[in-house]
Amino acid sequence: MSEDAKTELIRLLPRLRSFARSLTGAADQADDLVQTGIEKALRNLDSYTPGTRLDAWMFRILRNAWIDTLRARRNTAELDSEAAEALVGEDGRITAEARLHLADVRRAMAGLPEDQRSVLMLVCVEGMRYRDVAAALDIPEGTVMSRLSRARRALAESLKDRPQGANHQGIKR
Questions:
Q1: Contact 53, 95 (CB under 8 A)
Q2: How far apart are CA 97 and CA 128, in angstroms?
Q3: Long-range pairs for 50-57: beta carbons < 8 A, 24 or more residues apart
Q4: Averaged in consecutive runs of 10 residues, what is the pLDDT profile of the chain (173 residues)?
Q5: Whole-angstrom Cα distance, residue 73 to residue 77?
Q6: Please, which residues have CB within 8 angstroms of residue 129's CB and are 6 or more apart in sequence?
Q7: Is residue 119 within 8 Å of 89, Cβ to Cβ?
Q8: Which DSSP helix (H) or strand (E) runs through 171?
Q9: What are the UniProt keywords, alphabetically (predicted)?
Q10: Where would you tag: which of 28, 33, 104, 145 has the fewest CB atoms within 10 A of its CB?
């Protein structure tokens, strides 16, 4: 592995951890998932194409590792509060009003199917483009758009009955 690739991988760690936490719902499980993902990446470096997006490749590895974990444990993931905060806050900063409704957002996110939650996290939190999310999750770009649309619609439906004082601006790209 080149020094540049190692440096880029190290820079990706916070994003990988954030994505892992959105999948697992727990910091310790997220750390384990990131470690598993890094180990798999290092073992399979020959499958990475230099010049392509390392982040998309790593997100795919993490997602696949999480699916393997779920199959083995037959568990469901819960949303972590930090991931929910990142979704409702501006540039990762959560407003006082959003704090009041964080539990609602957490419940709504946890209620999403994993495939919709993954797409929502990668687009809304990571700021990835649809084509990059499609590559990371190994799905067609149209599927990314439809899952994102369904996730946003489900969140809006789930959150629509909040008190009128809430100035919710929605989940946007």
A1: no
A2: 27
A3: 50/5, 52/135, 53/132, 53/135, 53/136, 54/5, 54/8, 54/9, 54/12, 55/12, 55/15, 55/126, 55/128, 55/132, 55/136, 56/128, 56/132, 56/133, 56/135, 56/136, 57/136
A4: 78 92 85 93 85 88 86 52 49 50 74 88 85 89 94 87 52 51
A5: 11
A6: none
A7: no
A8: none
A9: Sigma factor, Transcription, Transcription regulation
A10: 28
- The domain locations on the chain are 3-159
CB 37 within 8 A of CB 16: yes
DSSP annotation string for 73-105: H-------HHHHHHHHSBTTBPPHHHHHTHHHH
- Residue 96 and residue 102: Cα distance in Å, rounded? 10
Instruction: Compute CA 46 distance to the chain's CA centroid, rounded to the nearest angstrom.
Output: 25
